[in-house]
Amino acid sequence: MERKAKYDYAFKLECVELVLKKHYSDRYVSKLKQTARWNIRKWVSFYKAYGKIGLLPRMNQSYSAKFKLKVLNIIEKESLSLMQAGIRFNIPDISIVLKWKKDFANFGLVGLQPKQRGRPVSMSNNKGKKSKSEKPLTREQELLKENERLRCENELLKKLQALIQARKNPKP
């Protein structure tokens, strides 16, 4: 199931054209269209860099550790802002780059490796079930099991008898 984009392509293009062709300010367009000003600025920047293709939704992209490291090195070397790096490398959201920075600072190169998505393989449906052993039970084990079964049956009968008594003699 794919996630739906918050703003569609036509809406983004309309906002960008208001800024670039009609020379409205990003602040005015953000108030007019009731969206965040930084969204307008981001869309205009992507439009200038990549044309109409820059406004198309890009979701669930996977980046290699090599690419992530390259982006972080260039940010450091050229003192790029997160927004500038996002536009230069066509990364749709600056929070992605920010997460890469934190992961690299905390875990090094291992933190930049792509994470496995979805449910872990170790989880299974039969967690609570006990597997039966192949070898037969000894006489002592059989008697212990039967004893336990009889105790449970006895407790059940006592509770049933108590319920029957409670229905016959309701307390006022």
Written overview of the protein:
This protein is an all-alpha fold and 172 residues long. Among the domains are: 1-59; 61-115. It has 7 helices and no strands. Helix 1 packs across helix 3, helix 2 crosses helix 3 (37-50) and helix 5 crosses helix 6 (94-107). The protein is elongated, with a radius of gyration of 32 Å.
List the helices and strands and how they pair.
Layout: H1 9-20, H2 26-33, H3 37-50, H4 65-78, H5 82-88, H6 94-107, H7 139-168
Helix pairs in contact: 1-3, 2-3, 5-6
What labels would you give this structure?
172 residues, mainly alpha, 7 helices, elongated, WH-like_DNA-bd_sf, sequence-specific DNA binding, IS150/IS1296_orfA-like, Transposase
In short:
It comes from Flavobacterium hercynium. The protein is mostly helical and 172 residues long.
Helical fraction equals 55-70%
| Contiguous uncertain segments of 5+ residues | none
Average pLDDT, all residues? 86
Largest sheet: none
Q: What is the helix/strand order?
A: HHHHHHH
Helix/strand-derived category reads: mainly alpha
Number of helices: 7
**Span from first to last CA?**
59 Å
In terms of DSSP E residues, the strand content is under 5%
CA-based gyration radius: 32 Å
From the spread of the alpha carbons, the general shape counts as elongated
Q: Count the E strands.
A: 0
InterPro entries: IS150/IS1296_orfA-like, Trp_repressor/repl_initiator, WH-like_DNA-bd_sf
GO molecular function: sequence-specific DNA binding
Biased composition (Basic and acidic residues): 131-145
Organism: Flavobacterium hercynium
